[in-house]
Fold these 3 entries.
Entry 1:
Amino acid sequence: MNVSDLITANQSLWQEYTQHRFVRQLGDGTLPDSAFRHYLIQDYLFLKHFARAYALAIYKCDSFSAMQRPLTALTGLLEHETSLHVAYCQEWGISEQDLENIEEDSGTVAYTRLVLDIGQSGSLTELYVALAPCALGYAEIGAWLPKQSFTARANNPYIAWIDMYAGETFQQLAVDETRSLDEMMKEISADSQQGRKLNRIFRDATRMEIAFWEQGLNKQ
């Protein structure tokens, strides 16, 4: 099986996630400021647990060469992505102290604990499948939004966010992630017990991504 099999098996949920009302409002620039600010703060808190998940991935590797992949991701997150996120939040009037002091919303708790539970109790492949909807979904959103007639570039406060995920760097990251995950799953049959388990994990993580958008809209 491969990543395409996971997306196809969950196509309805996947489309609900990648073409969510939150995403469409980012595209046309009508998303309320309060919804986006809440999302930015919760995404920062999510990144903390994302880092912990990659640390778990390193722990689960059985060779130095295998450790390199999650180590690279963890180093990039700690040294670059987090600081970029903090700087972007500051542009929206959210200080680093604000980011540290605000509590996790229920959707953030549900999503991150799902991933960490899989990371602690499951296999390395299962952990990567749980992480996959985030990077792969945002890449699809980044590729999809600029092509839509409703997406506005002029006077759109969210165009920098769209451009970041539409950019070559993030798009290539998703290509690399897909290639690596395909390699990990190549010996697994989609209709096997393990294949069905991976599909459930992917489905649940995609549901959590939808809930992440919803909690932002609920804070309007």
Note: The CA atoms of residues 97 and 198 lie 38 Å apart.
Entry 2:
Amino acid sequence: MLCAAPVGARASVHLQDALAHARDGGALLYRESHWQYRQGDMVRRLVLYRCPDGRAFARKTVVERGAPHAPDFDFEDARDGYREGVRSTPAGRWVYVRPRAGAPMRERRVDVPPNGVIDAGFDASVRQHWGRLRAGRELAQPFLVPSRMDFIPVRVRPGAAVDWRGMPAQRMTMRLDRWYGFAAPAMELTYALADRRLLEFAGIASIRDAKGDHQDVRITFPQAPVLADAGKLQQALAAPLVRDCGA
């Protein structure tokens, strides 16, 4: 599991908020708060997933120990106890999954391909191959699916240049790169041309609904990351997680 040491008062901390709406009706499903900071020579990220009223129900920590496209991470949803992640040890990389609270943790050692993508590392991979994608060339990479404890091939296809809320942007789609990929829903991503930051994600999210089904969402990042107080980050790292977003 990933643990975060206390954040230094002088640490450079950035915060970006996001909103997740249902694609079929636009109802606000949950909020996200994305923190990024450095701890020693490692880049760390924290994501708090919040109920519409602001209470946190899930937390993800991400640590770049080497290649940005294949970080360690740990995700936990307090509503049902689901947990998944990847950790580095002297014996190699391990993926782990706990389907619900009280269930045993399953884990397996995985060999990460040189171009293998893990969790939030997808964003770093897009920026790394930005020139290729902007030139209209597709990108095929293996992507880790923790629940399967294995990598699956995905293909990123550049789409049209668009105007996103007044900003020039590039739209892309990501789909399974297998013969049955036509049956799997594509994920649509929109990146700002000016700074290559993610503006919008539309597709099946990792956050599930009360029935345990993955939700079809549109996640928007209306504002660029801003400097934030290290004390606020420390509070976010220790924030208790609620088990129900209801009253």
Note: The two ends are 31 Å apart (CA to CA).
Entry 3:
Amino acid sequence: MSKQKIIVKKQKKGQDYGAAKTFISAAVILFLMLMLTGLLTYFIPGGEFDPETMIFTKSQTRGIPIVTWIGAPILVLFSDSGALVIAIIIFLLIIGGAIHVLKETGLIEGVILAIVKRFANNENLLLAMLIFVFMTLGAFVGVFEEVVPLVPLILILARRMGWDDVTGLGVSVLATGLGFAAAVTNPFTIGVAQQLAGLVIFSGALLRFFVFISVYGVLFFFLKGHIKRNRTERIDAKIQDTSHVPASAYKFFVSLMLLMVVVVGLTPFISFLRDITLPIIGLIFLIAGIGVGKIVNGSGKWVTKQFFQGAKEMSPAIILILLATGIKHVLIEGQILGTILYGISNQLQNKSPLFALFMTFLAVMGLNFFIGSGSAKAFILMPILMPLMDLLGIGRQLGILAFQFGDGFSNILYPTNAVLLIALGLSRISYVKWLKFILPLQVVLFVLAMFWLAIAYRFGYGL
């Protein structure tokens, strides 16, 4: 066996070990959280809370059987949200398979090599551009889950630039998540919340634009400092030869990626697209993987083999998603969500306006641990928060700003967020390592959010 093959084999073993370690640590954390949620159903009385009349009706039972806790990751597939979970799983399998085919053809390496050569002597510009593009997708279009297919590409680009995998996630998933939090016209948080609150859609955008700029600056300097402290060897010289990839394969791939951008861009403006965006993206990547594979290799058998290998490598992320959604299932089955919301509404009444505003931000951030969807939280919380904002004289626009911050900034922190779990699996970074990286930034973002809420309150934002 040649020396090069031995090195590749050792690298593969190291990657497999890292992936297994990442999966086990995340699975253990989620399982413990699942058990803790089950225990809470015995200590927190269940019930239903009607926010319109502020009436809380207690349940006659308390606690759910332990078999429901343990079986929740499977039982969730047969619940009301089961169809969505299954759709996400199928989407991930398709994306995993398609990306693997594209990588094995050498096309992705070729695209990355071109970018590396273009920005070899100006990595700060590349860093600024990547952060801006991904943050813009989150802030203006409401993209978050849809960036998953791009994560492997950005990770390869980061390695070629001499950046570590954490930086790769930083300029992609992290940037998108923070853009989602510092939203200007995000239709899934701002749009839905303002519609439920009876406000003009996307009104008050000027202040949110300045919030976006401030978060962008914080993230850029945070990642720039991280790169300086954790630079790795730039390995563009070790990229495999991609001269065998025909130009037609690149044209085919780029055309489909442009189509995907158009679909994502139209989603906020065409209502029926919102429910089928992920399936469409999955279909586009499936066509890209099969098409490029056939153009480069020509063998349907080879394409099929590579596709199923990629889908197989995505399976650990699916287990983590089932564990995370299982936590929400136990929360709903135990009927303790209504109790929690009732407690929050009681705590917010008769408080000073600014304190109530800060408490709203914290309450939404806490609830985001269990319910990741911004739109779902808007439907649950707006009927509670908006009357309270009116009562306290804060104004509904400012209440939505607090909701926006609470919903978004913790998306890239909690291990119950499916997008974060998938990204960590793709990068082979453990959740513990990610937590160490993200906590200092979270502290800065927490202070920044409080600052903007106080400024907005001081100048009567939305009144």
Note: DSSP finds 19 helices and two strands in the chain.
